[in-house]
Write a structure and sequence with these properties.
6-stranded antiparallel β-sheet
């Protein structure tokens, strides 16, 4: 299941996305295992002037396994990103 929400106006936009999935597999311990994956993403951009823009984003992902013998393989990660952009022309820009 995927879900996305977005809003934009001239020089500004924001987006929020969520994705969920489940699958069953047979692991190295030869037993059934349910794999669950969750991901959340949010981003926003704001155009300050004709050449400067600010961007920020967050990503949160989580992978879980149902079998007790494989739970040590569960993982969770978080990524944050912020940057500035300077446009030298319509097709060229610098990111900081």
């Amino acid at each position: 299941m995927n879900w996305m929400w977005a809003v934009s106006s001239p020089g500004r936009w924001a987006r929020i996305t969520a994705a969920f999935s489940r699958a069953s597999s047979t692991t190295a311990v030869f037993s059934r295992d349910l794999i669950q994956k969750e991901e959340y993403f949010a981003a926003a951009r704001y155009q300050v002037g004709p050449r400067w823009a600010f961007f920020g984003g967050l990503l949160d992902s989580k992978y879980t396994l149902s079998n007790a013998q494989t739970k040590s393989n569960n993982s969770e990660s978080k990524i944050r990103r912020c940057r500035r952009e300077y446009a030298t022309s319509a097709a060229n820009y610098l990111r900081f």
